[in-house]
Design goal:
This protein has about 375 residues and is α/β, with parallel strands linked by helices. Helix content is about 35%, strand content about 15%. The chain has two domains: about 140 residues, Aspartate Aminotransferase, domain 1 (Alpha-Beta Complex), CATH 3.90.1150.10; about 220 residues, Type I PLP-dependent aspartate aminotransferase-like (Major domain) (Aspartate Aminotransferase, domain 2). The chain contains ten helices and 14 strands. Helix 1 runs antiparallel to helix 7. The structure holds pyridoxal-5'-phosphate. Pyridoxal-5'-phosphate binds next to helix 3 and helix 4.
């Protein structure tokens, strides 16, 4: 048997979690193949219903990707040319691309260092008469602080659209992500915690009317809404994706238990100051751990140290979006220093449903040893 100390550990394992449902997927694939119903059939309808029920919202609409979900939800929220949307610079570029594709302006405000999410205390300063919406992102699966965000939106008559591409399974004070804001958008990209085997996305709608309109738009139907003409197009989820996602949805609680256990192993070994600090655990907040991150000033050396032990790690949003070429179309409100520092310091560790706990233990210990040596070098 190979020595577990020497094994290579990849950040993602997309195949092993498929194995328990492989036979069912293959049988269902044959059924769909022979049915001739390839787009928007029963699988999509059932997936939409099951996911809306789990979030306790009026409806969910399957679309072609998480990016399209954002575009459609923002359009429904009245984001139009010349309007502004307040969001975070510490996110994947799809978040701001969707705003820019609507000829609106992303306005970036800084994040909080303990959870890397948009800092609600900085949002109000960014509001102008052009602001139409706030777009928080539950980054790496940790919930943004939604209560103050929703209060600010209410006070200023703004819409809240939530990018929960990375956060299926996350709870904020006991409420499922997907149940907050006017609409929330999800991605089924294969590395996500609830994955397809290709592109796909979903929009959770609190209002049935939003869902109805999005269903029309995703199928090439032009719509007049408040004297504005919306152009329909093709943004449909296909049956094979929906079928695979439904099988993974059924297994999701089991997979989440394994991710939680890995996160607990890391939490027990890595000092609190170097990792996510989850607020409101006692009020039912839960993190889905799309990524588990550590931060340290010598991040690149930590990455090399882990690589020398065969451990694959990730660097995200370095530099953050205010250094992206698309910044031409954005506006920054105040300093974005926390996002800047996070970009330099954050490293993500392997966490997925197929990661052996012994490997998590080994990785956690290596990180902890590295951090202690760093401290000693500074003293
Ligand atoms: C935060 C965030 N928003 C949006 C998206 C876009 O999703 P998709 O790749 O399905 O278009 C992603 C995907 O990685 C994401 O991480």
């Amino acid at each position: 048997m190979s020595d577990p100390q020497k094994q290579l550990v990849q950040r993602y394992d997309l195949v092993t979690p498929m194995l328990p449902v492989k036979d069912q997927i293959l049988a269902d694939f044959e059924r769909i193949l022979m049915s001739g119903q390839y787009i928007l059939g029963d699988e999509v309808r059932l997936l939409e219903r099951e996911m809306a029920e789990q979030c306790g919202v009026a409806a969910a609409v399957g679309v072609a990707s998480g990016s399209e979900a954002l575009y459609l939800a923002l359009a429904m929220a009245g984001v139009r040319p010349g309007t502004e949307v307040i969001t975070t610079p510490y996110t994947f570029e799809a978040t701001i691309e969707a705003i820019i594709m609507l000829y609106a302006r992303p306005v970036l405000v800084d994040i909080r260092p303990h959870d890397l999410n948009i800092d609600p205390s900085r949002i109000e300063a960014a509001i102008t008469p052009r602001t139409r919406a706030i777009l928080p992102v539950h980054i790496f699966g940790a919930p943004a602080d939604m209560d103050p965000i929703q209060e600010i939106a209410k006070r200023n008559d703004l819409q809240v659209i939530v990018d929960m591409a990375q956060a299926w399974g996350t709870l904020y004070k006991g409420r499922p992500c997907g149940s907050m804001g006017r609409m929330s958008t999800l991605s089924f990209y294969p590395t996500k915690n609830l994955p397809g085997i290709g592109d796909g996305g979903l929009i959770f709608c609190r209002e049935a009317e939003d869902a109805e309109r999005i269903r029309q738009l995703r199928g090439h139907k032009a719509l007049w809404i408040n004297k504005n003409l919306y152009c329909g197009w093709n943004s449909r989820l296909d049956e094979v994706q929906a079928m695979v996602i439904r099988h993974r949805l059924a297994r999701f609680p089991e997979e989440q238990r394994d991710r939680d256990r890995v996160a607990k192993i890391y939490d027990d070994l890595i000092p609190k100051a170097n990792r996510l600090a989850v607020e409101d655990l006692d009020r039912g907040t839960q993190v889905t751990y799309h990524q588990y991150w550590v931060r340290c000033k010598a991040r690149d050396r930590l990455q090399h140290r882990l690589a020398s032990e065969g451990i694959d790690t990730g660097i995200y949003y370095d530099p953050p979006l205010h250094h992206h070429p698309l910044m031409e179309y954005c506006r920054c409100e105040g300093s974005l220093n926390q996002a800047e520092v996070a970009g330099r310091e954050v490293l993500t560790l392997p966490i997925h449903a197929a990661l052996p706990f012994a490997q998590a233990e080994r990785i956690g210990k290596l990180v902890a040893e590295f951090l202690v040596r760093q401290e000693e070098a500074v003293d």
